Amino acid sequence: MNEKTSSALFQSRLVTGSRALGRKLSKEAIKAGKCDWYIVFDQAVAASRYLDKARKAFICNGEFALLFLGRGFYRSGKALKRLLSARASGAILDNAESARLYDMRFANSHFTQSFMSYIYECQFEELLYPPVDPEIFRPSRVLQEDKYVLSMMRNMNEQNLHILGRIAREIPLKVVGNATVPGATSTGVVDDEMLSRLYSEASFLAFPVVSEFFGYAVAESISCATPALVMPGAGPAEIIASGFSGWHASSEDEFVARAVQIYREGYDPAFRTRALEMARRFSMEVVGDGFLSCLEKKMNHCRVA
What we know:
Structural class: alpha/beta
Distance between the termini: 28 Å
Largest sheet: 5 strands, parallel
Mean pLDDT: 87
Oligomer: single chain
Order of helices and strands: HEHEEHEHEEHEEHEHEHEHHH
Shape: globular
Strand order of the largest sheet: 1-2-3-4-5
Low-confidence stretches: 1-11
């Protein structure tokens, strides 16, 4: 964002934290002094009930309570997780009531806009992609003899690990994160510098997760000029354009077949150029300017009204 916009527009207070901290965080924000906007994230949504009359904007990256309803959630500690899942619906209803109290609601993808508007029964009017730092995630491709496909999996409960297992039996696969895949090379958790290099040097990113609201791994990958193979239907699918800067695969068998084909046959180098071009919408400058522009437009509209 340019200096003129950031200095002349208005002050804001950032509020973030868990559901239980909504009241406390709102008190701390009010203590900080008068402002034009309160900016509230995710599980601090209940802060809207306690903030003063300044305008309030809510930035949503999905509904955390939905994790308690997922199949992977029940693979350990079943008794505790049944208790938590029983409370999830109530938490979602409370969060929905709090969300309706905001002057503006932002979602981190078109998928999140539609999904959260449906379950919260209020419109998420604006799209706000999470930013990716181009100073960290940038192309740094090094010529090397050993090509590989990259994937990122946070843990062993991640979705569709078995798909990666099938891919690893056919082609070289590296997996970043705390998950292990038979036949693949596991890097474990790496720092951002190493992650950026792994993205850049990979043939492409294979990301078969289907329930991501946004899909940071895909956004980071194309920021490093590396196209991605994803499942359609959620946040990652809208980050790339299939056949232009990456590929969609609509089934498990298609995902495996396309991964093997793309790796063995290669692809037009223009995919990398186009992936990087599409990543520019996630730069901190573009995201920041867009966000401030939305708030400024809302303020001007309120003044006119």
